[in-house]
Amino acid sequence: MKHEICQLDSAAKTQPNGKEIEYNDIFKQREDIRSVLTKGNAGIGKTVIVHKCILDWAEDKANHDIKLMLLLPFRELSLLTGEYSFHTLLIELYPELAELKDPKIYNSNKTVFILDGLDESRFKLDFSKKLVADMNQHTTVDVLITSLIKGKLMDSALLWITSRPAAVTRALYKHIDQVTEVRGFNDTQKEKYFHRRISKPDLANNIISHIKSSRVLYIMCHIPLFCWIAATVFLNMLSRGDYKDIPKTLTSMYCHFLLIQADRTHQKNHGAYEMSRQKLLECNREVILKVAQLAFKQLLKARLIFSEEDLKECGIDANDSLVSGMCTEILKVEPTCYVNTFHEKTYCFVHLSIQEFLAAFYAFHCYISNNLNPIMTFLAQGTKAVPEHLGLDDLLKIAVNKALDSKNGHFDLFVRFLHGMSLETNQRILGGLLPNVESDSETMRKIIGNLKKMQRKNISAERCMNLFHCLSEMNDCSVREEVQGFLNSEKGSVKVLSLAHCSALAYMLQFSDEVQEEFDLRKYNTSDEGRKRLVPAVKSCSKALLVGCKLSENSCDIVASALQSENSALRELDLSDNDLQDSGVKILCAGLKSTNCKLEKLRLSCCGITRAGCEALASALRSKPSYLTELDLSRNYPGVEGKAKLSKIQKKQQCTISFDDEAEYWLKSGLREYACEITLNPNTAHRKLSWKNQKVNVHESDQEHPDCPERFKHCQQFLCSEGLTGKAYWEIDWNGRASIGVAYKSISRDRLDKSRLGCNNKSWSLECYLSEYLAKHNNETEHIPAPRSHSGRLGVFLDWQGGTLSFYSVSSGTLSHLHTFHGRFGEPLYPGFEVSKSVTICQHKKPTKRKANDL
């Protein structure tokens, strides 16, 4: 999931290619539509549309065939505790319905239920729970609503759900017939808004021109409410002739907005006489800090809606604060619809970004005031203690790590605002709220340096982009300029790109006005992690070559997103020689199923794909008319069943699917290209083991082996003589329980817990049983069911430099992938075995490559 500002980035790059629907016509597209989901970012206008639709129906202007339209806000449903029948739940919300004695009337008349604001729900929709079908059966509210959505309850009623995108789960999508989206302002509508709001054309044009000069501001204007904020700030400043400090960043914009609210409060309470900026803020300091504390506390809890009790915890008297005027355009009271039993008012910030800005201001204020206690929960880093003398760079580094740990970008905008607060110019705008200005060039260099060299692995693309945005909030353009220089240079590919460069380059390529003809990930001189950060650039190219770049499942998700994006330009995609396996292919299939996908060529050679992955591909290609004309699945393990599934697709659609000529050839020319000879090291073998012709047996009594410090004393196991540091493949026949793996030479020989394969940080193993396998490393175990084509032969493939160790079940010329360990190996690895009956090391010669005309 993405933070909504990241989603706005994508929205700004694409234009809708779906059909526009009038809000009164969402159930009129097809007769079979029962449930509609309307998505849209915070402040985009979802609830306004819902209310307008209800008003038009009530005034008999639209939807004349609908007899009953009931609004069920998730916000209010979340406040109901105890058990209800569906009928008593409706009465709780609409007391007038108590006059209906027979609940069957809902089914006999055309009824629409509107579930507004799924993102505001405090309960989860669990479709695996036992649901109800009887309107008179009492249960909890979450079960009733889930039953309604699934169609178990009131299956003849129409259903309209609204939500922010981040709250929509895959499980919910399964029960939705049509998805619509409120997209906010397009570029033309943005300009119309400012011309309507600002009466002077020249002034409006100046404001539009300035906003266009800042990509981040222009993207945010996709949200109507942000246009209002921008217009408020620019009108106030430009009408006073204040051109010097015109905001170019989000932080600066929101600082000025807060200042304007303070000024308006002053004029409302004290008349129109002027007061200095500092005095204005000082007069409202207490209220602003309390509201900022509320914003911070609720952001930590990921809550957008709060109660009067929440306000009181921060010392806010709702009536006094709201009446004073300071909060009227920052906080708003959420009306409690139609509920006579509710006395509790609920509140929210007028937009999520205002909550995040105030939360960042509160955290910064606590730091600069040397009062860290209120934010210690946020600063906590597991068992790691907060530095005794916390510097500003330390604070921001902790905040960045918190944001990177968030899967849905919960703290992304908060962290951007927090970095913006570090600028002296923004601190001076809020001078009346801060005890002093904290800014020195050395600290700024440290902060910028930390953002540039953030070395954490497996950071999602959106989080990487956010690091780039944090630099922009600090007015640091060095990375962008360096990347632009790289793009302009004819010898750009020679330059080594840092992780920060890769994030910036991906952003610039992704949102370029031009579609790249070819994007070849291998031509960029960077690390493996750097290449992963570049993957989002596939969204702006027609041909993407991502061959052999050690891509992960997260990379598959990014590529799938590119295939799903509106007006997707991707026509050719090569993911060969990446260990995607079936799990990665299944993620990719989400993109292939999309009606936006226009992919023509897909190469997945040597990606570890088995029957399950081939079945997922067949299902995806069968789900819609496909543009695909070429699919390369060579050097994989489709098996007979997987190949048959895809062959049916090949016959029905004009698509050429490439397999190997025969599975045996792949076994001989694929992994076995890396076949190596391994031999038992007799000095390591436990005393109960004996060996002959590469076969090792177990005896009840000790055998006559000489004393040797390398010998395992407690475990019936041995290591081989060869230390491996490249790519290597070997096969083992096992009988009885066996543990097959690799170990460093430094593995203990005399301590049971430290010497057994897989039970320490110096070894990796697959424990083999007839019904299952156990993958073990450092005492962590993963259970793996045995494949249907189970055998007593195991194939092991080591890519030492790539950091992977893969195990395969070998049966009748077919490899079935069992498990892959991922990590970084620090020493040569020695094949090792623990034996209960016997194991045999199989010997293979490297295959002779066929001539080109034989392939």
UniProtKB/TrEMBL annotation:
<dbReference type="InterPro" id="IPR006574">
    <property type="entry name" value="PRY"/>
</dbReference>
<dbReference type="InterPro" id="IPR041075">
    <property type="entry name" value="NOD1/2_WH"/>
</dbReference>
<dbReference type="Pfam" id="PF13516">
    <property type="entry name" value="LRR_6"/>
</dbReference>
<feature type="transmembrane region" description="Helical">
    <location>
        <begin position="216"/>
        <end position="238"/>
    </location>
</feature>
<feature type="domain" description="NACHT">
    <location>
        <begin position="34"/>
        <end position="167"/>
    </location>
</feature>
<keyword id="KW-0677">Repeat</keyword>
<dbReference type="InterPro" id="IPR051261">
    <property type="entry name" value="NLR"/>
</dbReference>
<dbReference type="InterPro" id="IPR003877">
    <property type="entry name" value="SPRY_dom"/>
</dbReference>
<keyword id="KW-0067">ATP-binding</keyword>
<dbReference type="InterPro" id="IPR007111">
    <property type="entry name" value="NACHT_NTPase"/>
</dbReference>
<dbReference type="Pfam" id="PF05729">
    <property type="entry name" value="NACHT"/>
</dbReference>
<dbReference type="InterPro" id="IPR027417">
    <property type="entry name" value="P-loop_NTPase"/>
</dbReference>
<feature type="domain" description="B30.2/SPRY">
    <location>
        <begin position="658"/>
        <end position="848"/>
    </location>
</feature>
<dbReference type="InterPro" id="IPR001870">
    <property type="entry name" value="B30.2/SPRY"/>
</dbReference>
<dbReference type="Pfam" id="PF17776">
    <property type="entry name" value="NLRC4_HD2"/>
</dbReference>
<protein>
    <submittedName>
        <fullName>NLR family CARD domain-containing protein 3-like</fullName>
    </submittedName>
</protein>
<keyword id="KW-0433">Leucine-rich repeat</keyword>
<keyword id="KW-0472">Membrane</keyword>
<keyword id="KW-1133">Transmembrane helix</keyword>
<dbReference type="InterPro" id="IPR003879">
    <property type="entry name" value="Butyrophylin_SPRY"/>
</dbReference>
<dbReference type="InterPro" id="IPR032675">
    <property type="entry name" value="LRR_dom_sf"/>
</dbReference>
<dbReference type="GO" id="GO:0005737">
    <property type="term" value="C:cytoplasm"/>
</dbReference>
<dbReference type="Pfam" id="PF13765">
    <property type="entry name" value="PRY"/>
</dbReference>
<dbReference type="InterPro" id="IPR001611">
    <property type="entry name" value="Leu-rich_rpt"/>
</dbReference>
<keyword id="KW-0963">Cytoplasm</keyword>
<dbReference type="InterPro" id="IPR043136">
    <property type="entry name" value="B30.2/SPRY_sf"/>
</dbReference>
<keyword id="KW-0812">Transmembrane</keyword>
<keyword id="KW-0547">Nucleotide-binding</keyword>
<dbReference type="GO" id="GO:0005524">
    <property type="term" value="F:ATP binding"/>
</dbReference>
<dbReference type="InterPro" id="IPR041267">
    <property type="entry name" value="NLRP_HD2"/>
</dbReference>
<dbReference type="Pfam" id="PF17779">
    <property type="entry name" value="WHD_NOD2"/>
</dbReference>
<dbReference type="Pfam" id="PF00622">
    <property type="entry name" value="SPRY"/>
</dbReference>
<dbReference type="InterPro" id="IPR013320">
    <property type="entry name" value="ConA-like_dom_sf"/>
</dbReference>
